[in-house]
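Hi there,

I know you've been waiting on this one. I reran it after we fixed the sequence typo, so this is the corrected version. Both the input and the resulting structure follow.
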Amino acid sequence: QVQLVQSGGGLVQSGGSLRLSCTASGSVSTIYAMAWYRQRPGKQRELVAALTRTGRTNYAGAVKGRFTISRDNAKNTVYLQMNSLKPEDTAVYYCKAQLPYGNSYWGQGTQVTVSS
């Protein structure tokens, strides 16, 4: 099993920056990809960014060039650096650990609110 604890988030003005963190514990060696998702009000949860164990990244078009996913292996932590934030980035952000055989674990979610 894997446990994920998120931190960061909060309220920021449009154009500002925030960094989210997601620290994994448990069977971390079985994780082959980490990702950030978000759920905006009235919308379905959507992929924001992903990072595989080999270092390959993938970004949603809406955040490409503004958000960066990275990791610190020594701390078992994945980050989402969010720059040039827009009001439409307002959402609850979740981290996800992807394991083999379709297993996955989610963080508790953290609110990001961008004011105009």
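Quick highlight: The first strand starts at residue 2 and ends at 8.

Best,
R. S.
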